[in-house]
Design goal:
- This protein is of the alpha+beta class and about 250 residues long.
- The chain has two domains: about 80 residues, no CATH class; about 160 residues, no CATH class.
- Strand 1 and strand 2 form a beta hairpin.
- The chain is globular.
- The two termini are about 35 Å apart.
Length: about 250
């Protein structure tokens, strides 16, 4: 049975359109961020997360992520918008990536909370008056890392946007990193996404790496990896075929 509110919106397209726009404006453009490191409360070295941690601005999104990937939503002590978080039980998550354009890499250096350097390692990307001006960054990863370590140059700013195939209604999520370990894999990843010719089903993997260096130092860190499985359209077709095969023959 409908009520007066349902009747008004059903008979007034303009009112319904305004309500739809207001609802869209109330939803964040980004549903949440997948993280394998958590900021230390004392400002020290970030704390490694062996399973994916997801932060979001919306409690309802945190609850949906917890239901899908395990964990319990909680509120972080932060002034950032994504104050809700879930430390999930998953180190491997199925995701859908629209294409190679969903993988973005540039380089940024922040000084006292302000963006002091933003480039593509060849030219500046901001501010507007400097766009296209040579940034004079070195051309190799090793040199870039050395400069960044000495606080004389920018660090990577990597973003991979995706949706969750089992919760598409939640919207777009993102993996963000200022690390270096995934950069050598990006050409192969973008190539695999391009060959799919559209959205791709992939695994976002939070891998723990442990080894002893030649100098005898124990190394232990989290590394994100993305493995493209198949075109998303094929995955949907395979799921439908499996569902048909599982139906009883009577």
């Amino acid at each position: 049975m409908s009520d007066a509110l349902d009747n008004i919106f059903a008979s007034d397209p303009e009112l319904a359109e305004r309500a739809e726009r207001a609802e869209a404006a109330a939803r964040p453009d980004l549903a949440g961020v997948f993280r394998n490191y958590e900021a230390a409360p004392d400002g020290g070295f970030p704390i490694a997360q062996h399973q994916w941690m997801v932060t979001t601005a919306l409690p309802v999104t945190a609850e949906a992520v917890a239901e899908l990937l395990g964990g319990t939503p909680y509120e972080r002590e932060t002034e950032a918008e994504d104050a809700m978080a879930v430390k999930t039980d998953a180190d491997r998550v199925e995701i859908v990536i629209d294409g190679p354009e969903a993988v973005k890499l540039d380089f940024k250096q922040w000084v006292n909370g302000k963006l002091a350097h933003h480039c593509d390692t060849r030219t500046f990307l901001s501010p507007p008056e400097d766009v296209g001006v040579p940034c004079r960054c070195p051309g190799t990863i090793a040199e870039l890392k050395d400069r960044a370590k000495a606080e004389r140059g920018p660090k990577p700013s990597l973003e991979i946007d995706f949706t969750l195939p089992h919760a598409l209604e939640l919207g777009r999520f993102r993996y963000k990193s200022s690390g270096w370990s995934l950069i050598p894999e990006l050409p192969a990843l973008k190539g695999a996404l391009a060959r799919s010719g559209g959205p791709s089903l992939a695994h976002l993997i939070n891998e723990r790496v442990q080894y002893t260096s030649k100098a005898g130092r124990d190394v232990d860190y989290q590394k994100a990896t993305v493995k493209v499985i198949k075109p998303y359209g094929d995955a949907i077709a395979d799921s439908r075929s499996a569902a048909i095969e599982e139906e009883p023959p009577f």
